[in-house]
Design goal:
This protein has helices spanning 13-24, 38-47, 55-61, 74-85, 104-116, 168-178, 181-196, 200-210, 212-221, 229-245, 251-265, 267-270, 282-297; strands at 5-9, 28-31, 50-51, 64-67, 95-98, 120-127, 139-143, 158-161. Helix 7 (181-196) packs across helix 8 (200-210) and helix 10 packs antiparallel against helix 11. An 8-stranded mixed sheet has the order 3-2-1-4-5-6-7-8, sandwiched between helices. The protein starts with a strand and ends with a helix. With 298 residues, the protein is of the alpha/beta class. The protein folds into 2 domains: 5-168, NAD(P)-binding Rossmann-like Domain (Rossmann fold, 3-Layer(aba) Sandwich); 179-297, Orthogonal Bundle (N-(1-d-carboxylethyl)-l-norvaline Dehydrogenase, domain 2). 52% of the residues lie in helices and 12% in strands.
Length: 298
């Protein structure tokens, strides 16, 4: 498979950065901006991503479409593309590489929907941050027949084929995100509760004494989280589904989804990544979230 044109759906924080990186490597990068926000349009323009204006055009002009969106939108997107495929009168040229944070069982459901419409499908998972200029590519794991052909996108992107089974890349992503975004949800609970109970300084002193590396890691990662909280709600729900499917309790990550749902509802969660004015330090983040809870309880 030769990859000359890649669709990015959608050109948000991660998507536009991946598109820009591929475009700089000589790949034609396209999208469909119909119904998208002004912010998505601005990011697409910044990245040099061409607007084809329709899903049908994506299916006929792309070799692959990278689905990069909040996980609770992944199913609707594949269903939409399947409907567009039904209008073509010919087999779609593009395959869908679903790079969203979904449960393995969800990936299988997406595969069934896509393939029933004649659209090829690969399971994927992104581990790492957006490849903004000067930053390395995230690791992009792809599983399913034909995943090996995407190594042609290296070194622009760090593509890692991960076997032929649809579900493997998603399983890896779910287990990894448990110990990154899942841990951040637990950390928010502990820091904010310590603040509300008046033991914040003592709590941090204990962390500095016996878990200094963890404290430094959280101080670096937590302030960047609030604008992404709306996306992480669905991711936590998919992690919960993963563990439920495995026979373990889903309740831990159903609770984590509630944490991110709360953060999304605050002024912190309404900001965008490129324009932050609140919660940019751990102290300010914890104070503002504690104040939001006090206001909610009053």
């Amino acid at each position: 498979m030769t990859i000359k044109t890649v669709g990015i759906m959608t050109p948000g924080d991660m998507g536009h950065a991946i598109g820009q990186r591929l475009g700089e490597a000589g790949i034609r990068i396209v999208t469909n901006l119909e119904g998208r926000s002004e912010r998505s349009r601005t990011l697409a323009k910044k990245a040099g991503i061409e607007d084809l204006g329709s899903d049908a055009a994506l299916l006929t002009e792309c070799d692959a479409i990278f689905s990069i969106m909040p996980p609770d939108q992944a199913g609707g997107f594949v269903t939409r593309m399947a409907a567009a495929a039904g209008t073509l009168g010919t087999k779609p040229k593009a395959l869908i590489a679903d790079l969203n944070a979904v449960a393995p069982s969800t990936a299988r459901q997406l595969q069934a929907t896509a393939e029933a419409a004649g659209i090829g499908f690969l399971d994927g998972g992104i581990i790492g941050g957006p490849p903004y200029p000067g930053r390395p590519s995230p690791r992009i794991y792809l599983s399913g027949p034909g995943a090996d052909s995407f190594t042609a996108l290296s070194p622009a992107l760090d593509i890692r084929p991960f076997g032929d089974e649809i579900r493997a890349a998603s399983a890896l992503k779910m287990c990894f995100a448990t110990l990154t975004k899942g841990v951040q949800a637990l950390a928010i609970q502990s820091f904010v509760t310590a603040e509300l109970e008046g033991v914040g300084p003592a709590f941090r002193a204990e962390l500095e004494s016996v878990q200094a590396n963890l404290l430094r890691s959280l101080a670096g990662s937590l302030p960047g989280m609030p604008p992404k909280a709306y996306r992480w709600v669905g991711e936590m729900e998919e992690i919960a589904k993963t563990y439920g499917d495995a026979g373990l309790t889903p309740k831990t990550f159903e609770g984590a989804a509630d944490i991110y749902r709360f953060i999304e509802s605050t002024p912190l969660g309404k900001e965008v990544v490129e324009n932050r004015t609140m919660g940019t330090t751990l102290d300010d983040l914890v104070t503002r979230l504690a104040d939001a809870l006090r206001e909610r309880r009053s």
